[in-house]
Fold L,D-transpeptidase.
Amino acid sequence: MNFLRRVFPIAGLVIAVASLSGCNILIPDVAADSPARFVQETSPVFYQPPGVDPRRVRPIPDQPVPQTRELYKTQFHQTYGLPVTNPVHMAMYGELRDEDFTLPAIPVSRVQPQFLRQEVDYQTAERPGTVVVDTKAHFLYFVEGNGKAMRYGVGLGRDGYAWSGRGVIQWKQKWPRWTPSVEMVSRQPEVRPFGAENGGMNPGLMNPLGARAMYIFKDGQDTLYRVHGTPDWQSIGKATSSGCVRMLNQDVIDLYNRIPARAEIVVM
């Protein structure tokens, strides 16, 4: 009897082990140690289009590294193809509060870079403080001396309406009134309401003389030509006016602050 008590538990254990042997719980998976099987189970899967032999596909050649370029030499940075604006220009031509008016910002990215205000080398026999207008290049120079000048882009008069010669800026005015000449009224009757008999046009953002006007005299007589600002920034670099020298409003304010009393002006 005691013998059976000792034998039955052992027999039950043997039967349980035999029934679980199919689950491989006690049998190690020696195939997992096979390098071939490891590679097969862990290798990445690549997309291979039908009919394409990956051994015959040529690799893409290395692309050249973009070289450093002068950032503001052109309007666009050619490396990335995006418009780039000089932050200095943004400061010079941004929104400006002046007297009782607020001048809007100039969209400098739409103005040709050579017509934006900049100090340049300029050799001339004219003495410092002289204003020189180059009508062919549409530039106005304020002579600083030592071979330097401040250069501005300008709009000029159409053929037949331009003036040239040497004169004196005898009078300067902030936010001037605009009074068209008798000749202009005869050519353009629509400006008659602003004629001298009606007191001219009040100062303002749409006044044709802009934020400043400098009146050119010759031999003590008013030539009726002015250096003045304009709200029409698109006219800079073009011949569209009735003879006067137009400047961006932010530029004409800068020039107004630079020129001395009775400054000489040469228009050539």
